[in-house]
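Quality-control log, excerpt.
Job 1 of 2 completed; input and output follow.
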Amino acid sequence: SASEDHTVRLWEPAGWQVRQTLVGHADQVPGVAVSPDGVWVASGSRDGTIRLWEVATGREVRKIYASGAVYDIAFVPGGGASLASASEAGVHLWDGTSGRLLREVRGNAVAQAVAFSSDGRVLASGGAGQIEIWDVETGRMLRTMLRQVNLLDLAFSPGANHGSPLLLASAWQDGLVVLWDVETGRELARLSGSPYGAFALAFSPDGRMLAAGYWEGTVRLWRIRW
């Protein structure tokens, strides 16, 4: 979990006890992610750094200096320690183990959220009032979805099953969670339930449920049917 006290905490699901507290950042940590293989944790901070930690030991193995405050982090599916960061300078793809910059994607002046599709081929990023969809291999922007509200988080559905479209869930500061068809950019649904913005989104592994965590301290679940 990320924290305003500049730390990252690793938790034991059984009993929800803190297993380890990772210390190193000098400012708030808005973004944290665990690699798909469970080996690494990456954290992004307003101090302008990305740090890669070893889950087994809690050891910091790499510190990457980003251009400005980092707001979100996402690992590339199947990409080992490769990851993307959303920051004041846009979206950057990194080799986490070496710290090498792999690609720079410039869309929004400030990128506040970033997410990969489950196959790692599509990247979504967004910030003030818009979402941008990118082809990861070429770096080409595929489409843009607009809303006149600040974006807080993004999450892809696991994939297209039984002819259903690949979905992107987006959380906005006005409290709405909006579902999009990634292929067409068409808005599919608006999910409401709180006047407070949802700061965290996650689909269930089968894509049939969507969870949203809100600033008021609640979690809401929706059944997704497409």
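Job 2 of 2 completed; input and output follow.
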Amino acid sequence: MQFSLLGPVRAWSDEIPVPLGPPQRRAVLALLLLASAQSVTTAALRERLWDKTAPSTAISAIQVHIHHLRKALASGGGSHIDTYPGFTKDDVSYALAVDPGALDTTRFESLLDASEAARNAGAPASAVERLDEALGLWRGHPAPELQSTPYVITMRRRLTDLRVDAVRRRASCLLDLGAVTRATADLLELNTEHPGNEKTVVLLSNALCRGGAHPRALRLLSTELDRWQHEYGLRPAELVRERERLANGGAMP
């Protein structure tokens, strides 16, 4: 059985979708999958689902969701949710173990590691293939069924940061391969989706210069420096150095 959290929560077996029920039930499944086979107490599930807005029926609702998830997973012939008793209802724990590679978040990070190994071995084309595969796993906002509790916010930020870094790494490899147009397009889109990242701006300015758009690269850096000065009263050293280098006709790295 396969599971996906890089977008709406899904499960399928032999390419057949497993019906998981309403959004909150899929949210419970997501939390069990994110625990990586470690047991999670009912109290922790309640906090991660609702934080301080948990209803009085939270524990019974979680128990009902676990019951129906067990039936759904069994229908797919796949994973099993284990229960570990506790002294109180809050202490009861649940764990869901899945096969390595059955969860897209795990595959995503494994592919990132493989791409880094390929690039370090001097194989940027292979690194791009791994990064294409990794980024292709994304289908939208991670597990949108989950409310934005502190736990979920941290999880989403971490995954999003990894995705942003993966796009940058792929663009860098593409530049190594001379695929300037594709790298520039990827970085322009990334800078629109996640503006203000110094590493993205510097790499984009490099890509623009390699494509013959030196004035545009200088304007990009100047605009970004002005924004930092206006919003934060700062001028990031990396952006300053890059602008000075390009303004002085520095060669592309």
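Post-run check on job 2. The chain has a mean pLDDT of 93.
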